[in-house]
Amino acid sequence: MPSSRRSFLKTTALGAGAAIAAPYAFVRTIDQAWGAQSWIKKGGPIKIGLLFSLSGGLAVPEEDSTLVMQYAIDEINKAGGIAGMPVEPVIVDAKSDFKVYSEKTKELILRNKVVSIFGCYTSASRKAILPTVMAQNHLLYYPTCYEGAECTQNTICTGPLANQHSKDLIPYMVKNFGKKVFFVGSNYVWPKESNKNAKIWLEQAGGELLGEEYIPLGGSEFGPVLNKIRDAKPNFIFSTVVGASDIAFHKQFKQEGFKVDTMPIASLTTGEIETRAMGNEFGAGHFLSAPYFEALDNPTNHKFVEGFLKSKYGKNGTTHYNMEETYLSAYVFKYGLEKAIKAVGLEGITPRAIRDHSGGIRVEDDVSPEGLIWIDDQNFNTWLKPKIGQCQADGSFKIVKAAEEQVAPDPYSIYPDLGKCTADGLKAPDGKIRKSVI
Amino acid sequence: MAVGSFFGSFDLSSFINALILGISIASIWLIAALGLTIIYGTAGVINMAHGEFIMLGAYSSYMLQSYFGLPFFLCVPAAFVIVGAIGLVLERGLIRYLYKRPLDTLLATFGVSLVLMQGVRLIFGSDPKYIAVPPMFTSNFQFGFVNISAFRVIVLAITIALVVALWALFYRTRFGVQVRAVMQDKEMAASFGINSDRIYMLTFAVGAGLAGIAGSLFGVLNIVLPTMGAGYVVQAFLVVVVGGGTLAGSVVAGGATGELQSIFAYFTNDTFARFVLYVLIVVFLRIRPQGLFAPSAKRR
């Protein structure tokens, strides 16, 4: 039956054509739709998406992020909202699964029509959702530390970059404990990039790298690594081990007879919550570099800690750097949106407009528990003061050193050949600008 | 990596330390696999919830310690009883209907693992918990250049004790004779008056209880989290499959994998060691799919 076969072919061809064209048509309708009506209706509410994992392996840090965001939103709403409009969070569970992160991103943007997304804790999940965020020209607030080497026009980060994180920690450890260091990290992109930065600081400080070992993500057997460290006899250990492995590492460090006074671990991730999970006796004496510690002694932080722990969101009983960075992102959003509304009016508000007006946004001492920070007007990461804390016997941290000046974020500090991240894209040394580089 | 660098840094005392560590790693692999060996070897159930039984063991120790103030060493046997009881309930309520459908047990136990994980999260929250041990167990022993942590010695001792106890249970008691009879031929055993249903129930409970003991020990070495079991279940399955589902097989397989892991990690690094180990296991199973010591007689 040639005719029916032909019609079959025709239908198939049409179908295939439609399938290929569909995403474009879809994007265009979205654009048109939003061209006609604004992202925020007059009087609100201002919808934002909270894209964190509430179940699965990443739930430990990310549940706290959701809670502290809700706390910040309550605080903002109590003080009159943003430009008189209340903020309304749309909370989704990304289930620690990168496919779900990406699905929920689409859902938040297309169905819930949120004006910004706050989310992710790992670089892997961020990289999973960025293509969608960029395709929709949307805005992601990434509220924790990461390695850099990204230049999109759709993200704002409120945590330290690799170039800020260990800048003071390595010279401090070399000066106080000795030149010889051993690197231990989890086996994925962030520890490896962080170690590249740390090596530069180590060289400048005149230190010597004795070894570099990586443990599978989630691995809990540190016997072989600790045996190597015992043989190498470093003066201190620089650790980028994350999550559950980090707790196993600190426990086994002590169980294997290592002494914290003569060979402390200098970490980028072992904060208040980790110390509590491993038990204070395993955490005491080790060092952490972070922009925030619960023990920071200033009125804003006292208010933040007390207010959060007393609120219905504070059941975990502690604050830590990741929480505080997430808290800051809510205020960076508030100020950015207010500035954008002033500039383009409520009708002109798009996620991208908020981002474009967020350059140079400052969160002052009286709001930011870690002290004044501001958003870089080129790469939209945060100028902040990294601090070094030493864990005490009671699990709290004593701040032993704080940067005197805010350190500039530079996502391409170790890749000068690739260029500099600017507001419009990655500017290569030859002057060419590439947009949306991930 | 140059071949020279593999052996360039060879140092006898560190190598001996690596061998000793290998025994300890082996004991961790083996104790994680013991419960699974019993359940798989006797009833043929592929228990995907084994990791969650380990997790329950850790949580029951945490609970007994922080709510009832039980000293750690009583928490270990208590974990056996509690998780064994949970296993018993599970076997009576679900698994016993699936013995004739082994593939369905795989799905059903996977579902159980999700339920247990989420249930624990609802009860205890998803923040990590902490099991305290007496200070003497957080130190190490040093004899000359030999170095080993006290807690690793304890894990090793408990593993040896459990293996001996299991051997005695299977080869020196009336119950053991019945279990082996059911393993070899269920119908024939039944015709001699052995209640195979009861045998399955008890072995499943004992297997779950053993996972509970492993969990209470891992909670000290590692971290107590609803998801902690996932890391151990793969290791446990490897040991059981390589061993062939028998106790002796698991002991040898656990010993070999632990030692190889430690030796490869000594010469290269931990990630590469895992890679080599898994490749070797795949090759081994290609040559000998039934495992090291497979039961030779017919099953059921």
Automatic annotation (TrEMBL), chain A:
Signal peptide bounds: 1-21
CDD domains membership: PBP1_AmiC
Alphabetized SUPFAM superfamilies for the sequence: Periplasmic binding protein-like I
Molecular function per GO: amide binding
Key word Ligase present: no
Top-level division of the source organism's lineage: Bacteria
Keyword list, A-Z: Signal
The protein, known as: ABC transporter substrate-binding protein
Origin species: Rhodopseudomonas palustris
TrEMBL record, chain B:
CDD domains: TM_PBP1_LivH_like (cd06582)
GO molecular function terms noted in the UniProt entry: transmembrane transporter activity
Entry's localization field: Cell membrane
InterPro entries: ABC_transp_permease, ABC_UrtB_bac, BCAA_transport_permease
Membrane topology: Multi-pass membrane protein
GO biological process: amino acid transport
Taxonomic superkingdom: Bacteria
Keyword Cell membrane: yes
GO CC aspect terms: plasma membrane
Transmembrane regions listed in the UniProt entry: 15-46, 67-90, 105-124, 145-170, 199-225, 232-257, 263-285
Record keywords: Amino-acid transport, Cell membrane, Membrane, Transmembrane, Transmembrane helix, Transport
Family under the similarity heading: Belongs to the binding-protein-dependent transport system permease family. LivHM subfamily.
Name the record gives this protein: ABC transporter permease
